[in-house]
Design a protein that fits this description.
The protein has 1 helix and 5 strands; from the N terminus they run αβββββ. It has one domain: SH3 type barrels. The chain has 66 residues and is mainly beta. The N and C termini lie far apart (37 Å). The longest helix has 6 residues.
Length: 66
Amino acid sequence: MTLDEAREHIGSDVLYRAPHGSTQNGIITSVNDWFVFVRYGITGSGVATPPETLTLREAPAKQEQS
């Protein structure tokens, strides 16, 4: 992910991939000139995260109401 992509997706779900291979789900809360701030779990504030370690998670498809 790039910083520009992150700015376009504030409030979206992302997947963080740590250098050692573990993953964690989070939500983009804000973006500055260097980092994407992501809220992981129930933490109250965003954690500075390098954008290249994030992947946008696809939202589930909406089902049509009949």
